[in-house]
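Regression report. Comparing outputs from two consecutive submissions.

Submission 1:
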Amino acid sequence: MIKDLVVNLGGGGAKDVTADYAISMGKVHGAHVVGVAFVYEPVIPGSLLGGIPTDLIEVQREENAKAAKTAVANFEAAAKAAGVSAESRLLDASIAGASDLFGRIARRFDIAVVGQAPRDQGVSEELLIEGALFGAGRPVIVVPQIQSEPLKLDNVMVCWDGSRPAARAIGDAIPLLAHAKAIEIVVVTGERDKSGEITGANMKRHLARHGINVEIKRIAVGSADVQTAILAHAADAAADFIVMGGYGHSRLREFILGGVTRSILKSMPVPVLMSH
């Protein structure tokens, strides 16, 4: 059951699709939604330290605070209009510090919801995704920038490769899968076997015991790569939600997104639930 979720609020624009999506989830599940907005510290390149007037730094700080406060106000108004139990938090942090802080906050919620990183200047969003995925121990739903609909589970696509992250993602997604109208377990043929059994038959039986019926679909990579095959099938199947493991590799003491995971997040057409 989903009883509470936390969402990272956008930069104060008129439309925050991530916040709206989180609120729609709260409405469907009768869950409490907490919106977190960060007041980011001004970013000053190392080469310019001491070379920027103090008043300009303060102006940037004030603009960041204004954007965060606007995001909070918009979130609170949207939650109230939807009749969803909600609260908000305004926190000061650096871009890197916000990632770690959001991951730690998310540990106390059933699900974390974050927005897709913009292609041009999405450093903060990408770090937040990494912080939530690898630091929270909770599932993360990433909402694409183009999202226009509330939570929709008509055609759910579950990616299965027999790995630990994939198994974790499926387990974490069960409260959502229980609401789905149609579910496909998608197995990419030609992938390296990560469990000794990736046909999906045993996972299908496992979900059936939860009252969740699924179909198994095997797709070939062919001349494409794995992420291209997954995204192509999602489009062909008119999937409106994807469940998959979130993969990463160690960078000293931290984790960074793996290649397939990063590629999916850059081109995702629909919300994606990931677990690590």
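Submission 2:
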Amino acid sequence: MKLMFESSIPGRGCSILPACDVPIPALPESLCRKKAPNLPQLSENDISRHYTALAGRTHGVNNGFYPLGSCTMKYNPKINEEMAALPGFTAIHPLQPEHTAQGAMAVLYQTEAALCEITGMDAMTFQPAAGAHGEFTGLLLIKAYHKYRGDNQRTKIIVPDSAHGTNPASATMAGFTVVSIPSQADGCVDLEKLRAAVGKDTAGLMLTNPNTVGLFDKNILEITQIVHDAGGLNYYDGANLNAVMGVSRPGDMGFDVVHLNLHKTFSTPHGGGGPGSGPVGCKALLAPFLPGPVVKELQGQYHFQTPEQSIGRVKSFYGNFTVVVKALAYILTMGAEGIREAAQNAVLNANYMMKKLGGVYTMAYDERCMHEFVMSLEPLKKETGISAMDIAKGLLDNGIHPPTMYFPLIVHEALMVEPTETESKETLDEAIAVFLRLYETAKKDPQTLHDAPHHTPVRRLDEVGAARNPKLRYPF
């Protein structure tokens, strides 16, 4: 498939604007280009066909099974998209007077109330634009809390090795020193190592629960109590909330601040780069530090207010608003019972797949999982030379998007599978059959998998070369 630059024909275009009938002011020469930009010159027909062809090469939840672990790439109802596209939401301006945007402000207010109920928090900001941005914001709240109290020696954030990879990066960006603690053989936090790590310099703990290997930590209440007893705060990475929403709440587990991925758990799968929304909820003790403004209701009217000790804005205006609209549509459509059922079905589907594959593939943790499970291809690789990468490429030939590969790092040759609640038993059975066939192929004809994929638009790419030497500009 050609790039748009390669299809460009000099002089071709699709502009149908009439000639300007008013004087065109001349720009200062210092602001003018010396040379016209190298933009592709194409007709409208050329452009339409180009993007249609690109869409045909894209695999998403509308095309087939997409079990991308730790990402919840699930199908979401199209009514959510329709609600976000209503003119009353798309034709407003963030600087217009409050009294003219009451409907949009009501969305923020109602969504905050719903998400606080789901998470067990007291207040929320919708400014963060993604999950990692929410992590950073939550850590700034913890930092502001300790500083306000004069507790300036609290400079360390404890991060278990089963956490999401963005956790230590976010803590470092927020100015903390990261203390990593290992997991036990069962995949959960080592309590003795945690007790040894906490102290007067502990600002807080970042924990993903269920964790990255798909397990709900059975010691969660003891974990958060250990940190609280040391004077620290507990941060909940809500990326895996899809497994527990409506069933258990981070606030009841002892967490003080949480970020959510609206673009995963509550609609708008984040494939394609966004937009995302990573709102941060917190307990009342952190609410005075939230980014401002937040929406408050007074005598039946909504108003923007900035908390007293606000850390300031973390994004322009009020966040990615239409993603919040989709999330509210999802919550109202599902209701309390539907939210809970979605989590239960996500757990059911993951355990069904794990059970069916467990007699053949090696499970990293041979116990009941939550929304995702991790397989280790290390034994198969030692026996046949077939790696997790080879199995993933074989899945592509069968119309399945590969699961997360080589993560979490604590599992060698890892494949992390999250079927989500929106897949039927028939789809799961088809996927299970593909996984089993690939295992047999690895035993009988490993070279076929070494050469996979065979039927995709492009074959196996030099991913290492692309990462180390990216070509970001077209060589005219």
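Expected: both submissions complete independently.
Actual: both completed, but the second showed a warning that disappeared on reload.
Relevant detail on submission 2: Residues 129 and 277 are 4 Å apart (CA to CA).
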